[in-house]
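Predict the structure of Major facilitator superfamily (MFS) profile domain-containing protein.
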Amino acid sequence: MFKIDRRFLLFMLIVASILNYADRQIIAILKPMLQEELHWTDADYGHLAAMFQLSAAVAYMFAGWFIDRVGLKFANPFAVGSWSLAAMAHAFAHTVGQFTLARVALGATEALGTPVGIKTIATAFEAKSRSLAIGILNAAGNLGAVVTPLFVPFLAAAVGWRHTFTIVGGLGLVWVAVWFLSGAWNAAALNAPEPDKAVAPAKVKWSEVFRDRATWAIMGAKALFDQVWWFLLFWTPDLLHRVFGLSIKEFAVPLAIIYLMAASGSLIGGAVVGQLIASGWSVNRARKTVMLVCALLVVPVPLVLFVKSYWLAVGLLGLTLAAHQGFSVNVFGIITDVIPAKRVGTITSLGALSGNLAGMGVLQLAGILLTNGVGYMPLFLMAACAYLLALLWIHLWLPVLRLANR
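Done. Here is the predicted structure for Major facilitator superfamily (MFS) profile domain-containing protein.
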């Protein structure tokens, strides 16, 4: 075991986040291939995606409690190891029903990823560097979404889609081995007043959770805006294939650019807030101003359906996801600002629960609308106003953001 610091811990969280998104996104990239081989309809695919969201939503009801109770040392490797095995299980599916079971398992286990990552950062990093650390972690997921479309089509062409699921899922098991061999969890104790408690279980009272206005602010906001992310994550490859006629290999670079832009939004959203606070702005003013700018940047997204060039569509979609990530990193920042550390995992999970339930509904709706020839327009109109409504909701519940006692 070698000397561990926060940078290595953050690196491990970054790799875990990349793997999380890679395992999640593979099915969207391979959709044209799988649909042709297994004869899925758009409604079948929408149902698969919705079941992923439903299982994640149910798991989120317990994920935060589990993480807060088990502690960071074991919660992190349990999360990565379990979702990696679930990802590998896709290789053995032959029917829509079997794929559904694999997606349910993946959704339930990936539900641990976000709350354990946010709790680890909330524990290991000081307030002044927490926003940037969360932004980097948020960007890491987008890096996974950038890398995945660049190599998955070619890997699938070389070894087949079944071995692709096995290879990508197996990378998570390597991560688990590195976690235990390195002792990465020790870095989480560096910022804690009582180091032994930093990675230890914590008791959480549900009465305290639901009496807190911040709980309802986060849950409502996540329901309003997270559905846009899930819709675009699962349906953007289909949009590029259906509307602009791009093949799996042809939409690899456009998808990578979209998620590279999204990653930049995450980094900028966290860094700008940090700079504003350092210059004397209050946390409340800094976060809500940046979130308002992000919300306004999403408004033009329905124009995607009217442009002739797919590169213009890529620019609009990339701007939308960059704004989403800038908005999202500040919602996570609000959690770490106003929620006591022992409840961060629980509140993060409840927010993700709300977002996944909303995402489930939108993904199911997308499959139905496309199967019946309605098209994408209602979904993009919903996306255009989602972030303004989410910010209004947060402001109604939390007019002023006040830092919690850690």
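Residues 190-200 have pLDDT under 50 and may be disordered.
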